[in-house]
Write a structure and sequence with these properties.
Blueprint (H helix, E strand, L loop, with lengths): L17 E4 L30 E7 L5 H17 L3 E4 L6 H9 L2 E4 L10 E4 L6 H9 L3 E4 L3 H15 L3 E5 L5 H7 L6 E4 L16 E5 L5 H14 L13 H13 L5 E5 L5 H12 L5 E4 L15 E6 L5 H13 L2 E8 L11 H11 L18
Parallel strand pairs: 1-13, 2-12, 2-13, 3-4, 3-5, 5-6, 7-8, 7-9, 10-11, 10-12
Length: about 375
């Protein structure tokens, strides 16, 4: 259950400030946010342009896999009680990790940091079979919150390895998702970080090569990498379905739609969030004169907007909507009062909670817990 659409949160701004559209027409400025703010904030300068506006990308923020993973930790805390251990960051977002930590989640880097017999959640990015084996050896009670779209890529790797293919995994070395996928077939998979590494690829049989990818890459860069790979290996096989997830593609498409129309693009997201970093790159490639990534509204530098009339705003797939709203408020203080939501797609996908957690919740409720639905905001939610 996602945070509600902008304009439905009481007290944020008066009705009518946000306009949603699927066209390229812009909305007139209709006022400024007046919500009181806590914590240190940069000094508020005089508005630079009374007509300054924000083009707000949609879709943005939480995808179905992130929503499921965060909800899994929240439900586990509510049902089993603290502490709940989480291997790696459940999703790549500082705010989410800090919020869950305050509620009793304990984030660890490796499985051997979890006490024997304790309950541990595997992050949305997935883990290798070796991690599952380590957890079993320590008698850990596991909840696997791997995004189903990442699991799909894992299954592809296993299948192609069973057929003895050389597998080229297009992705970023060191990213948890890549480590988990590579761990499914380490003797068959080699990682290519981008077009600049294509020349390094060595295969046993050029007739038996396939590519798969990390789910959160730049669509355009991945296509370029695959094009160059195919020049070297004309028989390169494609995965049975696209690996870059729907949410990554949709958020990049939304940024491309508004980037040529803005003076500055702001991307809300953490530095270790691959898809958030890609959004900034996509904005610049699509025509935004300047683009900046921030975790929090307080990181915004007023100097970025000197001479600007229109600001674009989006957020990565692991970013709760509350952080976007804070940025909108801050931009309002800087003179960008009109908000137009530019929608390029509507997402309705939801994934069920992990099976064993779902079963425990069902048993506790005396029946079916019902289909997992995206969450509405509440005091015990991180959205």
């Amino acid at each position: 259950m996602p945070c509600p659409a902008l304009g439905t949160r009481p007290g944020l701004w008066h009705s009518g400030r946000v306009r949603s559209t699927q066209t390229t027409e812009t909305a007139p400025a209709t006022g400024r946010a007046a919500r009181a703010r806590d914590g240190a904030q940069p000094p508020v300068p005089e508005p630079q342009d009374a007509g300054g506006r924000i083009l707000l990308a949609a879709p943005r923020g939480y995808c179905a896999g992130v929503d499921r993973a965060v909800d899994a930790v929240e439900q586990a805390l509510a049902h089993y009680g603290a502490p709940i251990y989480v291997r790696k960051e459940i999703v790549h977002n500082k705010y989410v990790v800090e919020a869950l930590s305050r509620r009793g989640a304990v984030f660890v880097s490796e499985t051997d940091e979890v006490p024997e017999g304790a309950r541990v959640v595997f992050s949305a990015h997935g883990v290798s079979p070796a991690v599952h084996d380590q957890a079993a050896a320590r008698h850990l009670q596991t909840i696997d919150a791997t995004c189903p779209l990442v699991t799909k890529v894992h299954k592809q790797a296993v299948r192609f390895a069973a057929d003895d293919y050389d597998i080229i995994l297009v992705g970023h070395s060191g990213h948890e998702e890549v480590e988990g996928t590579q761990g499914e077939a380490p003797d068959h998979i080699q990682v290519v970080n981008g077009p600049h590494e294509v020349d390094r690829v060595q295969v046993r049989d050029p007739e038996k090569v396939v590519w798969i990818s990390q789910t959160t890459l730049s669509v355009d860069e991945t296509l370029e990498t695959v094009r160059l790979l195919r020049e070297r290996f004309p028989q390169l096989a494609d995965p049975p379905s696209g690996d870059i997830c729907y949410a990554t593609q949709n958020r990049q498409a939304a940024v491309k739609a508004i980037a040529p129309r803005v003076d500055v693009m702001i991307v809300v997201g953490s530095g270790n969030s691959s898809n958030s970093v890609r959004l900034k790159e996509v904005a610049l490639e699509a025509g935004a004169p300047a683009a900046y990534r921030v975790d929090y509204a307080r990181e915004i530098d007023p100097a970025w907007f000197t001479g600007a009339a229109t600001v674009g705003l989006t957020s990565g797939a692991s970013v709760p909507e509350i952080l976007v709203r804070d940025v909108i408020d801050r931009l309002g203080e800087l003179g960008f009062g009109g908000v137009e939501e530019v929608r390029t797609a509507t997402e309705k996908i939801a994934f069920s909670l992990p099976k064993n957690l779902r079963a425990d919740l069902k048993a506790a409720s005396g029946g079916s817990p019902g289909r997992h639905r995206r969450r509405e905001p509440a005091a015990n939610h991180t959205c």
